Every structure is written in C-alpha cells, then in structure tokens.
C-alpha cells in the first residue's frame, strides 16, 4: 500500500534473523525504500528464529505520537522467505483479531494504542471543525443573505453572525490542521495544506472586505458587491473539494463520506428550490419607469449584493 510503513523480519544468508523498516513510496520495486526515520522506537527491535517452527519471531514497540506515520491500520502477514532472505514470497494477511486468537503467534500489549486514539481524535476534530464551518454555518449565512432580504435589517445581522461564527470554526480547524501536519506525513498532504491555506486567505479577505466596504452611495459599491459575492461562492466550492481530499487522506470511514455527500445534496436542493422561487418572484415583480425589476424579497438589483 503506497504511503505505508512496513517492518519486515526474515532470515539473512547467515541464518540469523533480520529486521528492517521500509517506506512503501509506490507499488514498484524501486519504491520500496529502507527508512528508519519514520518509526520512532523506544527500544531496539528484537528478533529470534525458532528452528522447530521454522518461524522468525520479532518484537518491537512504536511511539506513534512521535513517528511520522498515521497508524490507521495494523496488518500482519506471514509467508516463506527466499533462501538468501532478499525476497519475500507471496504471504497472506491476517487481521489483528486472527493474530490474537492464534496461540502460535501471541501478541503483547498494543503499545502506543492510546497515542493512536488521540491522533484519530485530533484528525476527526480537525475535520469536524472545517465541515461545520465551511459546510454548515457559511452556507446558511449565504442563504440568509440572498433569500431573506425582505426581513430588513434582521437578515444582515443574522448573515453576519453566521459568517463570523463560521470564521471562528475555520480558524480553529486550521490551528488543529497545522498541529496535525507536524505529526503526520502522508502522500498528498501538501496539496491539502496548500488548498487549505488558500481558503483561509479567501476567508480573511471576505472579513476584511466587510470591514472596509464602501458606503452605499459610493461609485465602487457595486464592484465590491460583485467581489464579495463571487469570492464567497468560490471559497465554498473549493472548501467542498478540500473536505473530500481530507477524507481521502485520513482514510475516512464510508459513513463519513456518505454523511457529507448527503449534507451537500441537501444544501444543493435547498439552494435550487430557493433560487427558483427567487427568480419566479423577480419575473413577476413590476418594472419601474426605467424598466428595472425590483424583487420585493430582496434589496438587491440584478446580481448586486448587500446595501449594508
């Protein structure tokens, strides 16, 4: 599995057991690299060969909190080695439960298990903060800003409140993500971090745009409105992509992916229904003397955004 770390125990040419960690960069033979830096071992690895069972036994402890790996899964495989120990023939994988149930391969305590649990909780916390910020609060704020303008000025304060709380969740999610990036190393993480940084910049620009927005009667106000509208929608779209990237990197459970897809589908359906109602009402609204239609449910004209 590309991106995994493997610890291999076999017999050397002298008949002594050998133990070596490898980094599996890709599926090619050149992608199997000897690498001792990804695993932090509190004690040295031990291995012994049982001539009666013709089996190499090994024991080691891993400090998952300090290692550059994401310990999502632990796999065990056993098989025959070649005569010189340089090649491992086909071997079958056993689950942790099989290993524990088989007295021939007794397991010690799962050293570092608490560290694994803590790391998984940190990953889930990071994802939950970002999904709730980008996937729930900000879309609700956007819906209020576009479709609830007849409740003036309440819509503006509701919109600003949702966006501010969403921004706080995003900052908290970024903070947990930065801390996680120091402890894990998986293929594709740089892309996730880069897109996350770009999204953070967009979020900050949106906040600054509100602080320094032109006055309502300014000639530049309509350009500010367009900027605020399009940058906000671009950020929400890219955030959806980055959430899926994060789920893929963390080997997210299927139910998490399905839950997020259901959330997106619900929001898209809500947007579609509200947008249809919006344009139906806009087309039915009478035009003024200049031929401009004003929607009673909105204080905007055409695609122009907030007057606040």
TrEMBL record:
Tell me where the transmembrane regions lie: 127-148, 154-181, 193-212, 227-249, 261-280
RNA-binding as UniProt keyword: no
Q: What is this protein called?
A: Cytochrome b561 domain-containing protein
Matching InterPro entries = Cyt_b561/ferric_Rdtase_TM, UCP037471
Query: Where is heme b annotated to bind?
Result: 126, 159, 192, 228
Asked whether the keyword Transport is assigned, the reply is yes
Domain named Cytochrome b561: residues: 87-283
Q: Name one GO cellular component term.
A: membrane
Q: Which organism is it from?
A: Physcomitrium patens (Spreading-leaved earth moss)
Q: PROSITE patterns this protein is in?
A: CYTOCHROME_B561
